[in-house]
Specification:
Radius of gyration of chain A: 19 Å
Distance between the termini of chain B: 61 Å
CATH class of the largest domain in chain B: Alpha Beta
Distance between the termini of chain A: 46 Å
Strand content of chain B: 5-15%
Strand content of chain A: 15-25%
Largest sheet of chain B: 6 strands, parallel
Largest sheet of chain A: 7 strands, mixed
Structural class of chain B: alpha/beta
Oligomer: heterodimer
Helix content of chain A: 25-40%
Number of helices of chain B: 14
CATH architecture of the largest domain in chain B: 3-Layer(aba) Sandwich
Strand order of the largest sheet of chain B: 1-7-8-4-3-2
Helix content of chain B: 40-55%
Structural class of chain A: alpha/beta
Number of domains of chain A: 2
CATH class of the largest domain in chain A: Alpha Beta
Radius of gyration of chain B: 21 Å
CATH superfamily of the largest domain in chain B: Thiamin diphosphate (ThDP)-binding fold, Pyr/PP domains
CATH superfamily of the largest domain in chain A: Thiamin diphosphate (ThDP)-binding fold, Pyr/PP domains
Order of helices and strands of chain B: HEHHEHHHEHEEEHHEHEHHHH
Number of helices of chain A: 12
CATH architecture of the largest domain in chain A: 3-Layer(aba) Sandwich
CATH topology of the largest domain in chain A: Rossmann fold
Order of helices and strands of chain A: EHEHEHEHHEHEHEEEEHEEHEHEHH
C-alpha cells in the first residue's frame, strides 16, 4: 500500500489496466510525452508505446467518434477530454453515437469506452475549464456517469469503468487531484459502479454529494456535529445509474435531506435526487429536500468563484433550515 | 492547380452505354451480376416509395440513382471489411447480404432493422450527418492496431462534407494512417441545398489535398468505374497506403425522403437531363448494345427482381412484431435498477391490456 493522491491513483489504475489487457489504450490531447495536463497519464507512453498512448489531433469529436469505432473493433479505449467543459465539442458523438450503438444495433455491437475528464471549480481556471455539466449525461440513456472523491475510489471506480461493457463518463474532481493522500492498495481492485458510499454515518440529516463537494459536505457535517446535529454524508460515486436504495435507506432513517452540487441549480442532478426522495421516502420526510448548488449563471470568473460555489457555510445553513423546518 | 485536370472523373461506360474505358478486370458474368443487383435494388426502392404512399411503411429515404456507387464500392471489399453508412445506404447493405426486407422493416419501425446479421460487418444505418465517418476511422485504426488487415469503408453524402466530423475524420485518419476508404456519394443535393451552396470548391475530391491523402473522382453512375477504382484503392489501403477519399459523382433521382417534395426547390429540367445517365439505364444500354444481354434476358432479369422484391415485401409485412418491453433491453448490457422498475411498470400496463391512446 502506498499513500497516493487521486491523480496518482488514476495513473496507477491506467497502468494496471494496460498491463493486464493489451486492448486497453489511452488517447487524447497531450496524453503522451506530456503525460496529460494534470499528469494523469504520466509515464504511460514510455511503458506502453505511442500506439497505445496516443496524442491525438486537437479535436474532441474525433477523439470520441474514433473511440466508438475502436471499441466496436475490439479495443478498450480510455479517452481523455482535457477539461470537462470541452466536452461540448463532442456532445453529438457521446449523445447520439457512443450511448446508442448497443440500442441501435439491438445488442450486436457495444461500446466499452471510458471518457475521462477533469471538472469542477476552485482552481481559478480560464472560462469553460471549471464547468460541471454532469446532468446532461445523467439525462442520456446508454452511458454511465461516475465520479470519485477519494484516491481509493478513483482507482477502484476507474478499473470498474474500464471493465464495464458500456460507455462510462468518468469525471474527476480537479480541485481534489492533489488535495490529500490516502492508502491505496497496489493490487487490482474494483469499486462497483452504481453503489454509493456512506462517507460518514449520522441519523438526523442526510447530505448527498459527489466529487468535489464530498469534502465540503464532510466538513459541514463535522461542524454540525459540534452543534449537536448528527449528519450522514452520502458520496454518490455513480451519478447514473443512481443508487436509489442507499439514498432512500438513509432518508428513511434521518427524515431530512440536503443535496449539494457545484453544477447550476435548474435541471441539475439535485432535482432528480430530490424527486427520487419524495417518491420513495415521502412519509419519512420532516422537511422539504434542500438544495445547495451553483447559481444559474455560467461558471464565474475566478475573482467570484469562491462566493459562487457551495461552501460549508451554505451547507450548514441548509442543514439548520432542514432541522428547524 | 488545375482541379479539373488533377481530379478527372473516371469513367468506363458513358451515359449512352458506350465502353469508353478498360473493363478487362471485370468478367462478363460479374457485369451481369451487377446488373441483376441494380435492377433488383431499383425495383425495391420504387416499391418502397409506393408502399409508403399506400401507408404500408413509414418515412423512407430512396436511394435511386446511387445504386452503382453503393454496390460497386461494397463489391470491392472483402468479407471481413467494415461498412459504415447512413440512412440512404440500404443498397450497400443489401448487396453486402442484409435481407432486402430490412430497409422496409426499418421504415415500418421494426428495431430488428438495426441488428445487422452477424456474418456481415456493417454498422447499422444512422442519421447524424458524417458521424459514421469517425466510426470508420476508429474501426480501421483498431484493425491496424490488431494487425487484422481489415479495411473500413464509409459512405456519406455531399452535405456531410460541410460537417466538422468529416474534416476531423480525414485529418485523424491521415495522421494515424488508418486503413479507411471515404466514399462520398455526391448526389448534388442535401435535401434542398445544391452542391453549389454547400461548398465553394470545384470538387469534393480535392479536399484530400489538404490532408495529404489521395483523392479520386469517379463517375458514380458507372458501376464498372466505381468497382474497378475501389478494387484498386481498397487493395492499396489494405497494404498500408493510408486513407483515400473517393468522390462518386452521382445524382439523387428522387426526393430526399418520402416526406420531401423536390419540385419546391429544383428544376424538373435538371432531373430530366441527369436522369438519362442514371446507373441502371446506362448499364442496360451497354449490355444490350454489346450483346451481353438480350431483350428477353432483360425481361427475365426484371421479372426475377420483381419476385425477389415481392418476397421481401411479404417477409417484412409478416415479420412478427417484437415485444414492446424489448425497448428496455439494449440500453446497457444489464438492466439498471431504474430500467428494471420501469420495465416492470410497462409490462404491467401491457398485461392489463394497455394500449397507447392519443
Amino acid at each position: 500500500m502506498a499513500n497516493l493522491t487521486i491523480i496518482q491513483a488514476i495513473n496507477q489504475a491506467l497502468a494496471q489496466a494496460m498491463e493486464q489487457d493489451p486492448r486497453v489504450m489511452v488517447l487524447g490531447e497531450d496524453v503522451g510525452k506530456n503525460g496529460g495536463v494534470f499528469r494523469a497519464t504520466d509515464g504511460l507512453v514510455d511503458r506502453f508505446g505511442e500506439h497505445r498512448v496516443v496524442d491525438t489531433p486537437l479535436a474532441e469529436s474525433a477523439i470520441v467518434g474514433s473511440s466508438v469505432g475502436l471499441a466496436i473493433g475490439g479495443m478498450r479505449p480510455v479517452a481523455e477530454i482535457q477539461f470537462f467543459g470541452f466536452i461540448y465539442e463532442t456532445m453529438d458523438q457521446i449523445g447520439t453515437q457512443a450511448s446508442r450503438i448497443r440500442f441501435r444495433s439491438q445488442g450486436r455491437y457495444h461500446v466499452p469506452l471510458v471518457i475521462r475528464a477533469p471538472y469542477g471549480g476552485g482552481v481559478r481556471t480560464p472560462e469553460i475549464h471549471s464547468d460541471s455539466i454532469e446532468a446532461f449525461f445523467a439525462h442520456s440513456p446508454g452511458i454511465k456517469v461516475v465520479t470519485p472523491s477519494t484516491p481509493y475510489d478513483a482507482k477502484g471506480l476507474l478499473l470498474a469503468s474500464i471493465q464495464d461493457p458500456d460507455p462510462v463518463l468518468f469525471i474527476e474532481p480537479m480541485r481534489l487531484y492533489r488535495a490529500f493522500r490516502e492508502e491505496v492498495p497496489e493490487e487490482w481492485y474494483e469499486v462497483p459502479l452504481g453503489k454509493a458510499r456512506i462517507a460518514r454515518g449520522g441519523n438526523q440529516v442526510t447530505l448527498i454529494a459527489w466529487g468535489p463537494m464530498v469534502p465540503v459536505a464532510e466538513k459541514a457535517a463535522e461542524q454540525a456535529a459540534q452543534g449537536g446535529v448528527s449528519v450522514e454524508v452520502i458520496d454518490l460515486r455513480t451519478l447514473s445509474p443512481l443508487d436509489v436504495e442507499t439514498i432512500t435507506d438513509s432518508v428513511e432513517k434521518t427524515g431530512r435531506a440536503v443535496v449539494v452540487h457545484e453544477a447550476v441549480r435548474t435541471g441539475g442532478l439535485g432535482a432528480e435526487v430530490a424527486a427520487t426522495i419524495q417518491e420513495r421516502a415521502f412519509l419519512s420526510l420532516e422537511a422539504p429536500v434542500m438544495r445547495v448548488t451553483g447559481y444559474d449563471t455560467p461558471f464565474p470568473v475566478p475573482s467570484v468563484e469562491d462566493l459562487w460555489l457551495p461552501d460549508t457555510g451554505r451547507v450548514l445553513a441548509a442543514i439548520q433550515a432542514a432541522m428547524n423546518y | 492547380m488545375d482541379i479539373a485536370q488533377e481530379f478527372p472523373i473516371r469513367q468506363v461506360i458513358d451515359a449512352d452505354g458506350q465502353l469508353v474505358g478498360d473493363r478487362s478486370s471485370v468478367s462478363d458474368d460479374q457485369v451481369k451480376d451487377f446488373y441483376r443487383w441494380l435492377v433488383t435494388l431499383r425495383t425495391l426502392d420504387q416499391r418502397a416509395w409506393n408502399l409508403q404512399r399506400q401507408g404500408r411503411i413509414g418515412t423512407y429515404p430512396p436511394f435511386s440513382g446511387q445504386e452503382a456507387a453503393q454496390v460497386g464500392a461494397v463489391a470491392a471489399l472483402q468479407k471481413d471489411d467494415w461498412i459504415c453508412g447512413s440512412y440512404r445506404d440500404w443498397a450497400a447493405l443489401s448487396y453486402a447480404g442484409v435481407p432486402l426486407s430490412y430497409p422496409l422493416l426499418n421504415s415500418m419501425g421494426h428495431a430488428v432493422a438495426g441488428r445487422i446479421p452477424d456474418e456481415i460487418n456493417a454498422l447499422p444505418v444512422q442519421v447524424v450527418i458524417a458521424a459514421q465517418t469517425l466510426h470508420a476511422v476508429g474501426l480501421a485504426w483498431s484493425s491496424k492496431l490488431q494487425n487484422q488487415g481489415r479495411v473500413a469503408l464509409t459512405f456519406f453524402g455531399d452535405g456531410a462534407t460541410s460537417q466538422g466530423d468529416f474534416h476531423e475524420s480525414l485529418n485523424l485518419a491521415s495522421v494515424v494512417k488508418a486503413p479507411v476508404v471515404f466514399v462520398c456519394q455526391n448526389n448534388q443535393w442535401a435535401i434542398s441545398v445544391p452542391i453549389s451552396r454547400q461548398m465553394n470548391s470545384q470538387t469534393i475530391a480535392q479536399r484530400a489535398v489538404a490532408y495529404n491523402i489521395e483523392g479520386i473522382r469517379v463517375d458514380g453512375n458507372d458501376i464498372l468505374a466505381v468497382y474497378q477504382t475501389l478494387k484498386d484503392v481498397v487493395g492499396r489501403v489494405r497494404e498500408g497506403q493510408g486513407p483515400v477519399l473517393i468522390e462518386a459523382v452521382t445524382y439523387r433521382l428522387g426526393a430526399h425522403t418520402t416526406a420531401d417534395d423536390p419540385t419546391r426547390y429544383r428544376p424538373s429540367e435538371e432531373e430530366q437531363r441527369l436522369r438519362y445517365g442514371e446507373p441502371v439505364a446506362r448499364l442496360r444500354r451497354y449490355l444490350l448494345s454489346s450483346g451481353l444481354l438480350t431483350e428477353d434476358e432483360n425481361k427475365q432479369v426484371e421479372e426475377e427482381a420483381k419476385a425477389r422484391v415481392e418476397e421481401a415485401v411479404q417477409a417484412a409485412e409478416t415479420f412478427p412484431k417484437g415485444a414492446p418491453e424489448d425497448v428496455f433491453n439494449h440500453v446497457y448490457a444489464d438492466l439498471t435498477p431504474q430500467l428494471q422498475a420501469q420495465r416492470a411498470e410497462f409490462q404491467r400496463r401491457m398485461q392489463q391490456g394497455g394500449t397507447a391512446r392519443g
